[in-house]
Amino acid sequence: MKMVDNCITLEQIKKSASSLRVLRPAYKEFIDFYEEFFIAQEEAKTQINLDAIAEELDNQLKLKTDNTTPLISTLDFVIFQSQAEVLFEKICKIAKEKGSPSLSSAAEKISQLFFINSSTSQSCNQIESYKRIDNIFKALLYNDHKILETTAKSLELNKDALIFLGFAAISPYIQTYSTQLSKYIKTEDSYTKGSCPICSGSPQMGYFNQNGDKYLICSFCQHRWKTSRMGCSLCGNREKGKQHYFFNEEEKEYRVDLCDNCRKYIKVIDLREITRDFYPPLEMLCTIHLNMQAAEQGYISVL
Ligand SMILES: [Zn+2]
Ligand SMILES: [Zn+2]
Predict the structure, then answer these.
(1) Ligand lying nearest the CA atom of residue 239
(2) 159-181 vs 101-110: helix crossing angle, rounded to 10
(3) What is the pLDDT of residues 210-263, one digit of tens each?
């Protein structure tokens, strides 16, 4: 099987971050932190053994004889445990040094619990089982909030920070797996649902490409799929008068699609309006004000 290459270079991320620092000075500190964070993730991708993924995929897809979507369940994504643990440690270090005060203190605690004192014997076996990183990664794949909540509570950790940092550590593996899987999708052109054809995740943002085609990007695996330009990208409603959007004069490349049927919103960027490299995680971050504006108007996030 021919492997699909990752599509953005570290240099492009750096350039995109530099452009956004100039365009959105209010986000400078955010960008400084996340640039390092995202580079660590992209670097991790370069270490992934694509042949091992190919073998896994061949086995998984042999079992699936139909051509329906989503292709796989989120539980079927393959995480390279030891590599993901190394990235987890690295990401916690970056968050400790450059993250917000609350994220920084959570990252410090995670580092101490999982990486510094990991060989220290604990009196309580229960705590030891919560301290197993593979269990945390598994709960993240299962989206099992109950386990994550119990884990965070027993380790006296902030649950949101644990989820955020843990998911960041497994995300490169999920994305790479998804990229390889994307070549098996045969229904892409006619797929107009508001969920990912690979994993059924919700879209985190949309974009218009150079031809004016509209695409959505999965919040879980980052797969990009084509969707209809008409109607709501999320619920498919096409009733007249139910779809609206707003944009700000100073950032015309963005608009926020609003739907009065599902009451949800999604940010959409027009790539014909930008010259910077398009790196969705950075774009998502530097447009948080748009989420706030949509929420003020009474719409809810799709995520
Ligand atoms: Zn997906
Ligand atoms: Zn809708």
Answers:
(1) 2
(2) 80
(3) 999 999 999 999 999 999 998 999 999 999 899 999 999 999 999 999 999 999
Beta-carbon contacts of 48 under 8 Å, excluding residues fewer than 6 positions away, are: 80, 83, 172, 173, 176
Asked whether 234 and 203 are in contact (CB, 8 A), the reply is yes
pLDDT digits (tens, 9 = 90+) for 14-59: 999 999 999 999 999 999 999 999 999 999 998 888 887 778 777 7
Distance in Å, CA 239 to ligand 2 centroid: 10
Locate 298 and state its tokens: 């009474």
Smallest-distance ligand from the CA of 244: 2
* 175 CA to centre of ligand 2 in angstroms: 26
Domains of the chain: 10-184 (no CATH), 188-301 (3.90.1670.10)
Surrounding residues of ion ligand 1, Cβ less than 5 A: 196, 198-199, 201, 218, 220-221, 223
Q: How far apart are CA 2 and CA 50, in angstroms?
A: 10
Cα of 84 vs centre of ligand 2, distance in Å, is 36
Q: Taking the model in full, what pTM does it have?
A: 0.89
Query: How many angstroms does the Cα of residue 210 sit away from the middle of ligand 2?
Result: 25
